[in-house]
Amino acid sequence: MNRKTLVLPAVVGLLAPALAACGGSDGSGDGGDAIVVGTTDRFVATKDAPAPLDPAYAYDVGSWNVLRQTVQTLMVQPRGEGDPVPEAAESCGFTDSGNERYACKLRPDLKFSNGDPITAADVKFSVDRALAIQADSGVFALLSTVDTVETKGDNEVIFHLKTADATFPYKLSTPVAGIVNPDNYKKNKLRDGFQVDGSGPYTLQAEEKDGELVKAVFTRNPHYQGALKVNNEKIDMVSYEDADAMGDALDKGDIDVMSRTMTPEQINDLAAADGDVDLVEMPGLEIRYLAFNTDAPTVRSKAVRQAMAQLVNRDELVSAVYGSQAEPLYSLVPASITGHSNAFFNKYGDPSVAKAKALLEDAGVTTPVKLTLHYTTDHYGAATKKEFEQLREQLNGSGLFDVGVEGAPWDTFVPAERSGAYDVFGMGWFPDFPDADSFVAPFLDKDNFLKSPYANSEIRNTLIPESRREADRLAASDSLNQIQDIVAEDVPVLPLWQGKQYVAAHDDITGVAYALNSSSTLQLWELGRGVSG
């Protein structure tokens, strides 16, 4: 067949059949070789981050995609779009009109992969553990509205919230709320290394080399009971050094599926070529942005950050680096998410050197402003370097800045960023769940994952709580728009673009259209083997 690009509409989830609450296989994956999935995600255990796959620590898209296959949550995001549905739970819901009491009843006969029964006490242990450890990744902040966790018997758990939180069902679908076995996870200590034990659709066998996970072997969990239909018996996920090596492996047939991160050039080549590989384009909510250490002398002045916002030409940046694979972004909240506004465009309009110069002159800032933009070399794809070179050219071309760029591998970049070593640094964000709260709170609330010194009391104390009270997310738009306007004024972060997402697979692999959801959640259980055509 011809190699082609399949473009999935944003409403794909509305067309998908309902999730079957069977936790079994339809037989399409029975027998045969494992389906092999390639990725450029790296999983490294270091002195600074010795527990990369502990649910109480992990907070990046790669590690979450390992945990989503293995550690079960009470709720799960459906195939496409829509509200989360029960997973380990048989039913869940708010039991009060104020969205402050949330109760779940567990499915009967739930078991961990080793056969141990799961009770409400295990759920309580897992959530209490994440909140008690408070890992420096900041992932525990997703559960910040939890006050106490109560159990009733062995199969009912009740979450008492500090404040109303209509987004709480989404948060229970994230790995930080995953159910872990107290026999394998200590209450007040992270679990080092790459071992994961849970009750999800797969078990994990980790193959590591020199402190790095090079291959994750997912085998269907015979004890799994949940909402997901598992269409295969075994998945091997292999980590490659870069996109070129991953692409070569696909061409040779060493892997069946290629996921993140492909280069823009690879995507264009796959779309144009003939062969037995299908390229599937999916809607995505990935965003990229610059973050500022607002205490750093170089960018402490709001005028410096505003001038950068006034100068960056997103259209030019996207066109030069990503082409049609990305779109300019003028807010932390991306387009297609309820509550989105173009706050940065509304404030700054088109790029203007004259306006940027006036901002700096009015604040008494001496030009050119000298600073360094930091980026990670191996986490968001090879195009990141070119992106930062484009940003450097734009800023330096104004004559108002003297900018350098420096790259570092992810396992070096993250601890440096968290320690405040970088004044300005580039990050990507894959939402925890498809709601505006997931693009606001992780950046601006207390205990935010960036460790940002920026704090706005109106956002934290009034606007975020207001937005969470609204079960109708459209009704939260006023509060969310005010947050975005404040961010455009103060510029603690500078949004750049939002991207599409792609999966490439040999044409005998089925279920590829559902292999990723809009939040970049890898859904390996959807994959199966069919007949090449």
Structure report:
Belongs to the bacterial solute-binding protein 5 family. Keywords: Signal, Transport. The protein is α+β, with helices and mostly antiparallel strands and 533 residues long. Helix content is 27%, strand content 23%. The protein is built from 15 helices and 21 strands. Helix 7 runs antiparallel to helix 10 and helix 13 runs antiparallel to helix 14. The longest helix is centred in the C-terminal third of the chain and has 15 residues. It starts with a strand and ends with a strand. About 5% of the residues have low confidence.
Descriptive labels:
Dipeptide-binding Protein, domain 3, 533 residues, 15 helices, SBP_5, transport, 23% strand, single chain, Peptide/Ni-bd, 13-stranded mixed beta sheet, 3 domains, Dipeptide-binding Protein, domain 1, D-Maltodextrin-Binding Protein, domain 2, signal, alpha+beta, four-stranded antiparallel beta sheet
